[in-house]
Amino acid sequence: MATILVVDDELGIRGLLSDILSDEGHTVELAENAAEARAVRERMRPDLVLLDIWMPDVDGITLLKEWGSAGLLSMPVIMMSGHGTIDTAVEATKFGASAFLEKPVTLQKLLRAVEQTLAKPTPRPAAPNGGGGATIYRLDTAALAHEAPMPGAGMAPMLAPLPLGPQSEQSFDLDRPLREARDSFEKSYFEFHLAKENGSMTRVAEKTGLERTHLYRKLKQLGVDLSRNKRGSAL
Question: 61, 153, 186, 229: which sits with the fewest CB atoms below 10 Å from its CB?
Fold first, then answer.
């Protein structure tokens, strides 16, 4: 079992996550702000950190950058936010986060993220000033297959460093303009669901939380080839 540091300014969330993780056999340390998180990190080395982005003094992204630049990011970090977007997830992973969870965090998502993150090598943060070439991440399509985003929710993928060797997952080059990176992810996201649902626009609309007309426009805008995904199924 692991020692997990939970950093969140909301008492209720800290208590809930602590209860869930303790029930799973983990040792849990709590911090309500960046100052307390620094103190815990200084006296111990947690196996994993669950870090809220929006905190009143120093936000989670800033603390993540601080740990990375100081060489203290020796543990994986899962970022949490109630306002999760692709932009936020990309920024978090750029600075060393292993995964991103959107609030409210469900029991299933939490335990799956913790289990998967603890099983992976600790990611290296991006080199300062963008040095060292492009950083490649892979989309965890298994997570998307089990749970599609709720209507109106921002899409928050779990991202992890792409290991060497042949991979079946889609890879993304994040060393490019944000709009291009976002469009690339969204195209792969919709192609994944179209293939999974055998081209059924009705089921894809339900899974992604989009109205069908909006979905058609989005797919056309992204250049998704609908003909190869239909496979003769009813729309």
Answer: 153
